[in-house]
Amino acid sequence: MASKSNEQIVMLPFLAHGHLIPFIALARQIHQATGFRISIASTPLNIQYLSSTFNSSSDEPESDSITLLELPFCSADNGLPPNTESTENLSLDAIGKFLSASQSLRAPFHSLVSDISAKQGHPPLCIISDVFFGWASEVANSLGTVNVTFSTGGAYGTLAYSSIWLNLPHRGRGDSDEFHLPGFPDRCRFHITQLHHFLRNADGTDSWSKFFQSQISFSMQSAGWLCNTVEEFEPAGLEWLRNFLKLPVWAIGPLLPPTVIKKDSSSSSAVASGISTGRAGKRLEISVEKCMEWLESHSPSSVLYISFGSQNSISPSQMMELATGLEESAKPFIWVIRPPVGFDKKCEFRAEWLPEGFEERMEKRKQGLLVRNWAPQLEILSHQSTGAFLSHCGWNSVVESLSQAVPIIAWPLAAEQAYNSKMLVEEMGVSVELTRWLHSSLDWKEVKKVIELVMDKNGKGGDMRSKAMVIKDQLRAAVRDEGEDKGSSVRALDDLIKTLQSKRQMSSIS
Ligand SMILES: O=c1ccn([C@@H]2O[C@H](COP(=O)(O)OP(=O)(O)O[C@H]3O[C@H](CO)[C@@H](O)[C@H](O)[C@H]3O)[C@@H](O)[C@H]2O)c(=O)[nH]1
């Protein structure tokens, strides 16, 4: 680790687990590389979550140099249920309201950074803010520091999502079902069904367009962007994103606990090899050990892991078809199960969501393990029995899966997930798309067919696994840091820090 320093960086993640998790990893990575003090600002309940995450990782002695700072937030003032401080339990429609409400953090965040500057006699080295808080670039400018945007997505997904929201190119497509991103090659061509219905219906005057257009435009005024990806993994996506933003983009991924990314692949699981992923901030209804024990009882690469991230659910009819397809495939699986769309996300599990007697049959046959609400995902993906991941293609899930060479069955449900899926299927060959969004009708026969295809150790499944293995090596090589031999992400982080320090020097001279 570099020598301790008086420099400080303030981070502002968006209020969602899919954003908080990579911000935590980024804070650790920067602190370990530089010794800088890092402050993460968030609302009270998210601070509680972050705090328990740090406390749970006893193998990280630096965590006292990462401080957590509270920002006041009252969801009830914004017409949301009380104590809503993350997207976790919100329906997609309520998320729109939550995005607007989150903008009330601007004034308290300005005061917080201003107080930090007054206390230490100079502003922090920089603010690293989420792309959803683009206004942080104005806060940084007004307080004499710089802002760096962290998108938390991959390069291709970030480019597609940002460019489509800003330009709404699908509106000018005429009779065609396809459109492409203006100024980009044909590989950036999309089918209209790859747009989530919010985006498909957007016309620039709706609240979603207004939110995304203003936050992306503000973020494009920052000093550069950080991306949780790797040069060798997304060369084209990064080139296109740089052309679009006309700003430096530092690819500093994969943002994963070092114990996971540097783990010896011969050990069967993170837990078995004494690895803590430092993710215990969420209450698990099943112990990590029980999941590992279940996985141990299955053969290598034989288990399908199913999860739709921290905030999405599928529809009741899709849930039935998925369960039937799983049972008919006879393949072992672990399924993180949540109330389907239309039910309160916090409600108790109900047997009626699944075919009659499903859970009991799966348990008796040792075919399936149903995990309520939240599973130790990284530990499951790191286990050698896990052979594929049925995922909504949230970017953290993509990176976590490929860092373990686990191919993906894609089922995008929101946000930029369809673009992540397109890249994984068309550019990388490590995924097959099962279906898209919530409103698609899903047939259990199709579920069975796709599961059999991907779980097959030969043929298409074997080919996907070999390609995923190449990506795993690229992701691991990027964080190599042995003397002069530094991977691309380590060099990118060095470059970010040098750029920030030279900006600081320039501003103190002028
Ligand atoms: O049971 C679970 C479910 C999730 N996770 C973790 O939660 C994170 C989920 O992140 P992600 O896979 O990216 O999904 P979302 O939570 O849906 O992420 C949001 O944020 C991502 C990053 O910006 C975007 O790519 C997604 O579209 C957006 O929905 C991952 O680290 C998972 O390991 C668990 O540990 N256990």
TrEMBL record:
SUPFAM superfamilies linked: UDP-Glycosyltransferase/glycogen phosphorylase
Domain of life: Eukaryota
Reaction catalysis annotation: an anthocyanidin + UDP-alpha-D-glucose + H(+) = an anthocyanidin 3-O-beta-D-glucoside + UDP
InterPro entries attached to this UniProt entry: UDP_glucos_trans, UDP_glycos_trans_CS
Pathway(s) the chain acts in: Pigment biosynthesis; anthocyanin biosynthesis
UniProt cross-references to CDD domains, sorted A to Z: GT1_Gtf-like (cd03784)
EC number: 2.4.1.-
Keyword vocabulary terms for this entry: Glycosyltransferase, Transferase
Membership in a protein family: Belongs to the UDP-glycosyltransferase family.
Protein name: Glycosyltransferase
Organism, as annotated: Salix suchowensis
